[in-house]
Specification:
Length: 91
Protein backbone atom coordinates (compact mmCIF):
# COMPACT_ATOMS: atom_id res chain seq x y z
CA UNK A 1 0.00 0.00 0.00
CA UNK A 2 1.17 3.61 -0.43
CA UNK A 3 3.87 4.42 2.11
CA UNK A 4 4.49 0.78 2.95
CA UNK A 5 7.93 -0.75 3.14
CA UNK A 6 9.75 -3.74 4.61
CA UNK A 7 12.68 -3.20 6.97
CA UNK A 8 16.03 -4.93 6.47
CA UNK A 9 15.88 -8.44 7.92
CA UNK A 10 16.36 -12.18 7.50
CA UNK A 11 13.41 -14.54 7.91
CA UNK A 12 13.55 -17.16 10.66
CA UNK A 13 14.69 -20.70 9.93
CA UNK A 14 12.46 -23.70 10.58
CA UNK A 15 12.69 -25.38 13.98
CA UNK A 16 14.76 -28.16 12.41
CA UNK A 17 17.29 -25.59 11.13
CA UNK A 18 16.24 -25.72 7.49
CA UNK A 19 16.41 -22.44 5.59
CA UNK A 20 13.41 -20.43 4.43
CA UNK A 21 13.41 -20.36 0.62
CA UNK A 22 11.06 -17.81 -0.92
CA UNK A 23 9.74 -17.39 -4.47
CA UNK A 24 7.68 -14.33 -5.45
CA UNK A 25 5.75 -13.35 -8.56
CA UNK A 26 4.72 -9.71 -8.97
CA UNK A 27 1.38 -9.26 -10.76
CA UNK A 28 0.98 -5.50 -10.23
CA UNK A 29 3.63 -2.81 -9.83
CA UNK A 30 3.35 0.53 -8.08
CA UNK A 31 4.21 3.78 -9.87
CA UNK A 32 7.46 4.18 -7.95
CA UNK A 33 9.37 2.60 -5.11
CA UNK A 34 8.75 -0.86 -3.64
CA UNK A 35 12.20 -1.95 -4.81
CA UNK A 36 13.52 -5.24 -3.46
CA UNK A 37 17.11 -5.39 -2.26
CA UNK A 38 18.74 -8.74 -1.44
CA UNK A 39 22.19 -8.60 0.15
CA UNK A 40 22.22 -4.85 -0.65
CA UNK A 41 21.76 -5.49 -4.38
CA UNK A 42 18.68 -4.25 -6.26
CA UNK A 43 16.60 -7.07 -7.74
CA UNK A 44 15.06 -5.69 -10.94
CA UNK A 45 11.51 -7.05 -10.90
CA UNK A 46 8.92 -6.56 -13.62
CA UNK A 47 5.28 -7.67 -13.68
CA UNK A 48 5.17 -11.42 -14.29
CA UNK A 49 8.73 -12.06 -13.12
CA UNK A 50 9.57 -14.88 -10.75
CA UNK A 51 12.38 -14.25 -8.28
CA UNK A 52 13.63 -16.60 -5.57
CA UNK A 53 16.12 -16.26 -2.73
CA UNK A 54 17.08 -17.78 0.61
CA UNK A 55 15.10 -15.44 2.87
CA UNK A 56 16.67 -16.75 6.08
CA UNK A 57 20.22 -16.63 4.71
CA UNK A 58 20.12 -13.35 2.79
CA UNK A 59 19.32 -9.93 4.25
CA UNK A 60 16.52 -8.27 2.29
CA UNK A 61 14.29 -5.20 2.37
CA UNK A 62 11.82 -3.26 0.23
CA UNK A 63 11.87 0.52 -0.25
CA UNK A 64 8.87 2.74 0.46
CA UNK A 65 5.93 2.50 -1.96
CA UNK A 66 5.17 5.76 -3.78
CA UNK A 67 2.01 6.38 -5.74
CA UNK A 68 -1.53 5.14 -5.36
CA UNK A 69 -1.26 1.73 -7.04
CA UNK A 70 -0.44 -1.07 -4.61
CA UNK A 71 2.23 -3.60 -5.52
CA UNK A 72 0.73 -7.09 -5.62
CA UNK A 73 3.17 -9.89 -4.95
CA UNK A 74 2.35 -13.60 -4.69
CA UNK A 75 4.69 -15.28 -2.22
CA UNK A 76 5.49 -18.99 -2.11
CA UNK A 77 8.02 -20.63 0.12
CA UNK A 78 9.43 -23.78 1.58
CA UNK A 79 11.85 -24.91 4.23
CA UNK A 80 14.84 -26.67 2.69
CA UNK A 81 18.18 -27.96 3.94
CA UNK A 82 20.49 -25.13 2.83
CA UNK A 83 23.48 -27.45 2.59
CA UNK A 84 21.79 -29.36 -0.26
CA UNK A 85 21.83 -26.25 -2.45
CA UNK A 86 25.31 -24.87 -1.86
CA UNK A 87 27.20 -25.19 -5.14
CA UNK A 88 30.62 -26.87 -5.03
CA UNK A 89 33.01 -24.28 -6.45
CA UNK A 90 36.01 -26.62 -6.82
CA UNK A 91 37.11 -27.44 -10.42
Amino acid sequence: MPGGDVYSHRDPKAENGWTTYRCNIMTQATEEGAELYVDDELVDINVGDLHCYYASEQTHYVTKVKGETPRILWMFGAHLPYEDFIMDQTP
